[in-house]
Design a protein that fits this description.
- With 348 residues, the protein is of the alpha+beta class.
- The chain is 22% helix and 34% strand.
- The protein folds into two domains: 150 residues, Aminopeptidase (3-Layer(aba) Sandwich), CATH 3.40.630.30; 184 residues, Aminopeptidase.
- It is built from seven helices and 15 strands.
- The longest helix is centred in the middle third of the chain and has 14 residues.
- InterPro entries: Acyl_CoA_acyltransferase, NMT, NMT_C, NMT_N.
């Protein structure tokens, strides 16, 4: 989001809620908004890579692969929620939305998850981001969606929860050389479980475990089988899931998505696996086995959010608490106070 936060003062955030539909926006002369189409798909991917640098803090920023952006846009976003901003036929901005069935306090509501809001460097601080947000809101309202959720490293007064990142080094030698950390006493791990990559036939069992693990959370995404297949089936440079089976039945699983982290201070990129979700009777054993497999995938560090059931293990010695915070925001929705132990929703 642009530095000018005055936009949010008049928006339905925090305790301000509205039932009024948003009107279509009027663009400044020379600007047009189009939907994401096949003919501009690759151009949009490169635009996001070059201009969407969601900062974890002042020293770190995220780097998305072509495969990840394609996986996200194709599998999670309808065309009408992918808005491409042009100025005189030059691509200068983008925003996307995905429909999310969010379970909030045991009630399932349809939200729009907002992601990849970005502008070309030469078009920032010109109040164009609010126009993209307003137009996306209008389209969502036309589809009877009146609530949204988004996250970001930048802090606004209306975040409903702030969550710490925790890090588990997988390749400490590289992390020390790149000044990501100064010292790490890596524990010695040995393989004790036989994990495998899930097939499409395994997803219904993973889904059952996912819902079982989240049933007492106050905020989590309620997944359909179709959505679960898109989230848990492995995709190169995007998603990786491991399952533990017994007699052909999935008994445990752990899932990550892959996004590199760019270190601004050392001008280096490290490959990170972000923990998405898991189910286990012995999470330490499952984590350790997954770390061994991730090392074979050349992952340098595992990142996870310190919330929900992750709090069972992130305070252990082999995880390091980071300095970055992730802020969660509702748009046109309010709820009772949510504690970090009660949330289990990861946005990509």
């Amino acid at each position: 989001m642009e530095n000018d936060s005055t936009f949010w003062k008049d928006e339905p955030t925090g305790d301000k809620i509205t039932k009024k539909k948003r009107e279509p926006i009027k663009l400044p002369e020379g600007f047009t908004i189009k939907n994401l189409e096949k003919e501009n798909f690759n151009e949009v991917i490169q635009f996001i890579k070059n201009n969407y640098k969601d900062k974890i803090d002042s020293s770190l920023s995220l780097e998305y692969s072509d495969e990840f952006i394609k996986w996200y846009l194709v599998n999670h976003c309808k065309k009408e929620y992918c808005l491409v901003l042009f100025y005189l036929n030059e691509l200068v901005g983008f925003i996307s939305g995905s429909e999310v069935n969010l379970c909030v306090n045991k009630e399932i509501r349809l939200f729009l998850g907002v992601n990849f809001l970005c502008l070309h460097l030469n078009f920032r601080n010109k109040k164009l981001a609010p126009l993209l947000i307003s137009q996306l809101t209008f389209i969502a309202n036309e589809n009877n969606i009146f609530h949204a959720i988004f996250t970001g490293g930048k802090s606004f007064p209306f975040s409903f929860v702030k969550v710490n990142y925790f890090h588990r080094p997988i390749n400490p030698k590289k992390l020390i050389e790149s000044k990501y950390l100064f010292y790490y006493d890596e524990p010695e791990l040995k393989s004790e479980l036989k994990l495998s990559i899930p097939t499409k036939e395994d997803i219904s069992q993973i889904l059952k475990l996912y819902h079982q693990n989240n049933k007492n959370m106050k905020i989590y995404e309620y997944l359909s089988l179709e959505k679960a297949e898109k989230i848990f089936l492995p995709v190169n440079n995007s998603v990786i899931t491991y399952v533990l089976k017994k007699d052909g039945k999935v008994e445990e699983y752990i899932s990550y998505f892959l996004i590199s982290t760019f270190l601004n201070y050392s001008n280096q990129s490290i490959k990170a696996a972000y923990l998405h979700s898991w189910y286990s009777n012995n999470i330490r054993l499952l984590l350790n086995e997954s770390f061994l497999l991730l090392k074979e995938e050349n992952v340098d560090v595992v990142n996870c959010l310190g919330f929900g059931k992750n709090l069972r293990f992130v305070k252990n010695d082999d995880f390091l608490e980071g300095t970055g915070m992730l802020n969660y925001y509702f748009y046109n929705f309010k709820t009772e106070n949510i504690e970090i132990k009660e949330i289990s929703y990861v946005m990509y």
